Amino acid sequence: MSDDHDAAPADREGPADGEPAGREAPADREAPAASGGPAGHEVPADREAHGTPRVPGTPGAPHAHGAHARHRTAAEKWVAFKKSPFLPATVLIFILAAAAGLFAGSYTFSMANPTPHRIPTALVGSPDGRGKAFVQGMEKALNASLELHEYRTYDEAREAIDEQRAFTVISVTGSGVRMDLSSASGATVGQLLQQTAPQVGKKTGVPVTIKDIKPLQQGDPRGLAIFYVSLAAVIVGFVGAIQLSVHARALNPAERIAYTLAYSLLGGFTIAAVVDWLLGALTLPFVQSWLILAFTMFTSGMVFTMFNTLLGRWAMVPTWGLMVLLGNPSSGGAVSWPLLPSVLGHIGRWLPPGASVNAQHTAVYFPGHQHVFPYLVLAGWSLLSCAVFWTWRHRHPGGRPTGPSHAAD
Q: Which pTM does this prediction carry?
């Protein structure tokens, strides 16, 4: 065979077929390159065996030189950090830590040690010496003021209870003082008065008769059920809006409002059905309670949608602050407003959670004496949220194009 043919492999034993026995390949003959090139051809250091350039930074690649090797400046690192997912994740660490502390602090501040400030009280007739001594003893024991409103007859004073202008009725009788409580007006206030009045009667020497003329329902002896159903409507309301933004992002503005209304109606019905029909904790005026809960859920959902339009991904921060940190503790559901810190007692009525509790509480315990103010508060927040969302809907992160699609050329 001629010298231009490939040499026999080094591990081949014996002569190839057709070659003379004993013939060996020259000692300086090299095997051809793996790429099929001529023997002795060397592969450049920066190329792979098959001619592909090696990427700097990979094993066996040459070291980068010049601009590729320089370290990034602090400004460049900061720009890269701002564009990375690490910036919002870092911000969330501090937001969640602050939210945890504020959540515990707001509820502890308003509910852990309720202290009376002023308690609206209906007084039948002008008090004599015994009546005045009892009232002064109550104010001293409570370290608060009994805000007295005089009525000529007991029926007028009882009407004040039904209209929720007073929490108790004090009448001076021939044998002493009669105190009629209304636990339904405020369970915490009723409990405080019921504990304090007998002690004051003993100290002042005035016999006291106590009667609860408007008790709570048997399934809700502490008066917390209304607070919990309202809390459920508030939280599920804005959580539902969050889920629409995540899982139904392409909804257009009108569709988003319609779906918020739909889950509010169904959610309110479910809450009322569970509390009344399933658990029997409260006997509700079902349709009215259902619609109040649905109104609350819709308002809460649209509040989040409003903030999502204005603030984008950070919408949860003001929503949580307004509805949970501030709104729920000041709603008067867990602690009656006379026992709340004075600022919270006034603010809570103007926020959706407080309006929901007030409307629901009156519907359950004072039918026929419903006030329009809570409904106006809910309507105001709903209209404001919808107006902001609709006006700046182009800023909302969701939606989809509504014009005719054009085929690609």
A: 0.77
pLDDT tens digits, the chain, 409 residues: what are they? 444 444 444 444 444 444 444 444 444 444 444 444 444 445 455 444 445 555 454 455 555 555 555 788 988 888 888 888 888 889 889 988 988 898 888 888 877 777 788 899 999 977 778 888 899 999 899 888 888 899 999 999 999 999 999 999 999 887 789 999 999 999 989 999 999 999 999 998 989 999 999 999 999 998 999 999 999 999 999 999 999 999 999 999 999 999 999 999 999 999 999 999 999 999 999 999 999 999 999 999 999 999 999 999 899 999 999 999 999 999 988 888 888 887 888 899 999 999 999 999 999 999 989 899 999 999 999 999 999 999 999 988 888 877 655 444 4
Half-sphere exposure of 217 (CA within 13 A, CB side): 16
**Strands 168-172 and 145-151: what pairing?**
unpaired
Residue ranges of the alpha helices (H) in 36-112? 74-83, 86-111
- Specify the amino acid at residue 329: P
Q: Which is nearest to 310 in space by CA: 397, 248, 232?
A: 397
Using CA atoms, how far apart are residues 332 and 338, in angstroms rounded to an integer?
Answer: 9
3-class SS letters over 128-197: CHHHHHHHHHHHHHHCCEEEEEEECCHHHHHHHHHCCCCCEEEEECCCCEEEEECCCCCHHHHHHHHHHH
Q: At what angle do helices 352-365 and 373-391 cross, to 10 degrees?
A: 140
Task: With beta carbons less than 8 A apart as the criterion, state whether 293 and 233 touch.
Answer: yes
Asked if residues 356 and 374 have their Cβ atoms less than 8 Å apart, the reply is: yes
